[in-house]
Amino acid sequence: MTTSTLGERFAANAAGIAATTVTGTWLAALLLGFDWWLAFMLFGYIVIVPVVAMLFDEDDEDGEETDEDGVERARSNARVERDDQDDASAALARLRTRYANGDLTDEQFERKLDRLLETETLDDAAAWAERNRVDGGVATRTDGEPEREREREQEREQERDR
């Protein structure tokens, strides 16, 4: 963890400090009965807080921020990637649990795992959906065989083997 000086911490939080100061001042003026509280509130939120934010805010226009080492990072992109990883991890965990419980055969597990890995990103999912167009709620592969029907047949074969 890096240590920062008081000035660096002030600069990083200047807009919040200005907003808190403006709020405290107009609220105190209101409670103490001064007539200028409304004018100060409007002036504070329309002029003071935005000017302080413009002067001290170091975020670039494209949403990327430069840290002390000069490395740019996109916070929103990192957040989206983290959410995608969490969703993929949760889906993979559910798939593993179903396989461990015996709900899926080796072939079903491998097929579903391949499908999960093929559709890991939105672009991959769109490409997969294009390859496997949906006709009447049934996913039809490019070879024309309905996917659900194939899974049902495999499940019937497993039941016969038991």
TrEMBL record:
| Pfam families in the cross-refs | SHOCT
Q: Which parts of the chain span the membrane according to its record?
A: 12-31, 37-56
Q: Domain SHOCT spans what residues? A: 90-117
Report keywords, A-Z.
Answer: Membrane, Transmembrane, Transmembrane helix
Q: Where is the composition biased (Acidic residues)?
A: 60-70
Q: Which domain of life is it from?
A: Archaea
Region annotation (Disordered) ranges: 60-86, 133-162
Q: Which InterPro entries match?
A: SHOCT
**Record's compositionally biased regions (Basic and acidic residues):** 71-82, 142-162
Name under which the protein is recorded: SHOCT domain-containing protein
